[in-house]
Amino acid sequence: MAKRAAPEVNAGSMADIAFLLLIFFLVTTTIETDTGINRKLPPMDDNQEDVIIKQKNIFTVLVNGKDELLVEDERMNLKDLRKAAVEFLDNGGDGTCDYCHGKKDPASSDNPDKAIISLKNARETSYKMYVSVQNELVAAYNELRDKRAMSLYGKTFTEMQADYDNVNWVGNKERLKEKIEKIKEEYPQKLSEVQ
Questions:
Q1: Is residue 1 part of a domain?
Q2: Chain centroid, CA 4 distance in Å
Q3: Angstrom distance (rounded) from CA 38 to CA 31
Q4: Does 79 map to a domain?
Q5: For residues 100 and 91, is the Cβ–Cβ distance under 8 A?
Q6: Nearest to 115, CA basis, from 59, 42, 193, 183
Q7: Tens digits of per-residue pLDDT, 10-58?
Q8: What is the pLDDT of residues 65-120, one digit of tens each?
Q9: Can you give the pTM of this predicted structure?
Q10: For residue 160, what are the domain limits?
Q11: In whole angstroms, what is the distance from residue 36 CA to residue 160 CA?
């Protein structure tokens, strides 16, 4: 019986095919990037003048290494933080804020423009707790902005932001931007992180 020779496989174009597959996967693959917490730093001020801030206008929030929350030197649960921040920001203690609905306590913040939330975290604080505290504080600002926008424009601030970010929104973007900026001016987000 005659031996049959095995047919040779033409491997000449294998390198070309592998190279084309490599290029295809490099082009079509998306690489996810981590996104952090969105914070905008204040612009550098050439004027190095010291600003005096009254202690009553600072809302201190401390998170220790055991993930315990201290607000104004008192222990607090995370679920109560938003309410306490809203009460502080919306106090209107000096009477200059005609849109504030707070208790008008003279020992608390004067008005939302002067109110500052100071957040300090211990080095051992867990990332989960850090983000949770940040979320509650930002939610306090958003809650006040939503209430104010609803009373002025019949629409929440969050909805207005979504409309402005929506490319297909058919309304007047410039007018909407003015409304958003007005609400941001009335309730400016002054969140300071202390080292």
A1: no
A2: 74
A3: 20
A4: yes
A5: yes
A6: 59
A7: 777 888 888 999 999 888 888 777 777 666 655 666 666 666 777 888 8
A8: 888 899 888 899 989 999 999 888 888 877 788 888 888 888 888 888 888 888 88
A9: 0.73
A10: 55-194
A11: 24
